[in-house]
Request: fold
Amino acid sequence: MSKLLFRAFTFASTISLGAVIAQQDSSQEEDSTVTYPASYFEQFSPVSVNDMLNQIPGIDRILDADLGSLTLGNQMDRGLGASSPILIDGKRLAGKANEAASQLDRIAAIEVDYIEIIRGTSSDLDVQNAGQLVNIVLKQAQSRSSFSFEAGVRHFDNGKVDPEGSLSLTGQSGKLSYQLSASARSGYQLDSSSELSLHPDLRFNEIVEFEQERNQTNYSINSNLSYDFSSRDRFALNALYAESNPPGSLLRRITDFNSVTSSIRYEREIVPSTSDNWEIGGDYEHKYNNGSKYKFLFIVNERDSDTTRERFTFENMGDVENKNLFLNNSSRYQEKIIRTSYAWNLAQEQGIEVGIEAAQTTQDSALKLGLPLPGATSLDFGGLRAMPVANAVSTVEELRYEGFVVHNWRLNPRMSLESSLVAEFSEIEQTGDIDNKRDFDFIKPKFDFRFDINSAFQMRLSAEKTVSQLSFADFSAATNNQDEDQDTIAGNPEIEQEQWWRYTINLDYRLPNDGGVLTSRVFYWDVEGPIGRIDISPSATELASTNGNVGNGFVLGLNLDASIRLGFIGLPQALLTAGLLVRDTGVDDPLIAMERKVVPNDRGSFRIGFRHDVPSLRLNYGFSYNDRIDGNRPLYDIDNVLFFGSSSDLTAFVEKTGFAGLTYRLEVINILDHDNKRERRRYDGYLRDDVLSEIERFSTTSGVKFALKVRGTF
Reply:
């Protein structure tokens, strides 16, 4: 593996050195930042910032925080961190749920002065540049305001029509800048599925046909306020409240072929659910006369959810129903984060930032299981008998502190080096049915070297140590959403964080005259303790598993992206985008006694998109298609393995600005009505013993969806 990594690094370095020699005549171009003034976008009649960004080649790559869905195993966001791909007026938003990417549809295009693509790194930036940054600079005026709206309907395959829309007010009054918005979005989902169960000799066992409906609407209200006390003092406050109460229902028709004549029975499920979250974040910045800067940020948020699953059985439609399952899962997740830092210039070409981040993360969870067994019943368990579940009630709290130092060094006009060191200390305590306390400490260095071969061609080399944030749901018993034959999965109070070393070579080339962007990315990740299933069986005949740390592994991959204007065939306003991701992964897993893939890093994916703007008609249209590369995406458990098929989507749109200056957009989503297929193989005893007992083949479709939207700005 080290040889393969060395060859990949050598290959990319050779390309870069060749580019230096081939382009010596332009090597004096030093500024690699690309600027698009507001006037550049006027011909496209944009309504929001998102409409403006859609005109910039390579923007998808920049805004994709995972860089092509390169997911770090089970990693979740840890605190605020030092990076963000989007800045507004050169500042990050102090938010997680209410972060900058969620604002792009809410900021009116007429409020924008210019947009920058920042390809370099500097201590003057408000964040570390993990790749490239988008800086949206708004107009400055004593008094300005704009009101934008979106209204539309979404049509689903079963004929259901859901309205949706949003309102947004953006403006400035003296030293106060503000953005207020509210939205209601459809989260409705209808899945039609079938499952064919086969015996090991491929005889029919069962056919299960079911239709699952989730009737969900997502509501949100948010605000972003900033006040400039002076040219050197600024305070911003951001707030969000969101709610969705997604009740679900399901009806199964089960045909059993194990008798002389087949028999049919039914199961019905109702799944009432509530979910809401809120967040408040703020940041203060002070600039000193000598150019140094002090920053303080904070975030407080909370997510609450409660889901109940009740299952009923009956022989024929209209018969009396018998409840055979009650399952309730409730949780409350809270974060409190503060981050403070001081930055100054060590020398003319060097800057340094030192600071500390502290976070308290808490999750309260409870699981209730009721079954139709003899004994006392309880209304709290759906009128069934309460069943004991180990580690069902739990509170998990993490106290985490990070001290960090970031050094930026402009080595020469075309080379820069950003290095950082983070020391993390944390304490995780679990109380409730199980009491446990553990301490952790990690040292996380990062190095980022950039070489501007010229203003168009850039090479970036990086090495970084990362540590994942544990999902607190893994600490206690929870519902098992991966396997309907297993209602709950045990918790693991001893689970530990995944640790990753990530090495990357990135080449980025911008074609002349804004003709497009070509990028390539070779990466290698060394992973310690990836999370998968581990054996917690009480005996050899009573198998059980839960999430835990398994053997060390690796992820090796190549990411290629292209975004090209088609002026060379007479379509200068047409943009073609394409991307390819290929990966090889492996980890030694003692549960199955073999090497497996590092979930969810499968073989890769590809995508293609097209957009054509016709300014003379104030019209644009296009499509996007994405799919996974089939195969090598299994999810192993102690006695079964689930193989995932590809997940493709083809969406097309047409949009026109017309009557009353409004923009009308029609989207067709999931045009191919993709059939999502999976296969599960179950075994008698351990999977590693290879005694096959059942094959289950699943097929699910969600139907074609239509969306009609009307947008405008006043």
About this structure: The radius of gyration is 27 Å. The domain at 480-714 is CATH 2.40.170.20 (Maltoporin; Chain A). The helical segments are 2-22, 38-41, 49-53, 59-63.
